[in-house]
């Protein structure tokens, strides 16, 4: 089965963490995730995550730390999800693809209905 490599960013924004909700028409509809997307051919992980955040949210970020990648099997694809902690630098936040966003304290993140592959990331991040 196909494995896709996807980067995502846990972004500190105004002292909170930004989470975004997938739209009804995306894969994993209405699940919450950290924004990001698929790595393009020849692209570095960091270039990918910065590009995706600019495309999806219209903001610039600075990468602070890489967390542990997660390999997860969904029913129809396998994902290698590569997480980074980042901070907001500039730009006006605009959702280009997602249906909603929230800014939460670290200890509130678990309340959302996360994409399954994000759960180990959430666990590692909240324990930091
Ligand atoms: N960006 C992002 N994607 C995630 C996370 N967790 C997770 O399982 N994914 C999955 O990773 C896949 C790739 O992300 P993407 O944002 O490039 O996907 P996409 O909407 O372009 O996919 P599609 O066009 O095939 O529906 C999606 O199927 C998404 O469900 C996450 O935290 N962030």
From TrEMBL:
Answer whether the UniProt record assigns the keyword Membrane to this protein: no
Q: Does the keyword Magnesium apply?
A: yes
Query: Known InterPro entries for this protein?
Result: MutT-like, Nudix_hydrolase, NUDIX_hydrolase-like_dom_sf, NUDIX_hydrolase_CS, NUDIX_hydrolase_dom
- Essential cofactor(s): Mg(2+)
Reactions accelerated catalytically? 8-oxo-dGTP + H2O = 8-oxo-dGMP + diphosphate + H(+); 8-oxo-GTP + H2O = 8-oxo-GMP + diphosphate + H(+)
Pfam families, per database record: NUDIX
Q: Name one GO molecular function term.
A: metal ion binding
Enzyme Commission code(s) on record: 3.6.1.55
Query: Which residue numbers delimit the Nudix hydrolase domain?
Result: 1-126
Among the GO biological process terms of this entry, one is: DNA replication
Source domain of life: Bacteria
Sorted keywords for this record are: DNA damage, DNA repair, DNA replication, Hydrolase, Magnesium, Metal-binding, Mutator protein
In which family does this protein belong, per the annotation? Belongs to the Nudix hydrolase family.
PANTHER family per record: 8-OXO-DGTP DIPHOSPHATASE (PTHR47707), NUDIX HYDROLASE FAMILY PROTEIN (PTHR47707:SF1)
Its name, as the record gives it, is 8-oxo-dGTP diphosphatase
Organism, by scientific name, is: Gelidibacter algens
The upper taxonomy is: Bacteria, Pseudomonadati, Bacteroidota, Flavobacteriia, Flavobacteriales
């Amino acid at each position: 089965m196909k494995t896709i490599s996807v980067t995502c960013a846990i972004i500190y924004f105004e002292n909170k963490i930004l989470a975004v909700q997938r739209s009804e028409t995306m894969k994993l509809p209405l699940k919450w995730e950290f924004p990001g997307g698929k790595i393009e051919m020849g692209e570095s992980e960091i270039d990918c995550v910065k590009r995706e955040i600019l495309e999806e949210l219209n903001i610039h970020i600075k990468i602070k730390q890489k967390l542990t990648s997660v390999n997860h099997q969904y029913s129809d694809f396998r994902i290698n999800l590569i997480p980074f902690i980042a901070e907001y630098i500039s730009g006006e936040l605009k959702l280009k693809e997602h249906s909603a966003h929230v800014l939460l304290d670290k200890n509130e993140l678990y309340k959302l209905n996360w994409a399954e592959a994000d759960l180990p990331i959430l666990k590692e991040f909240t324990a930091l």
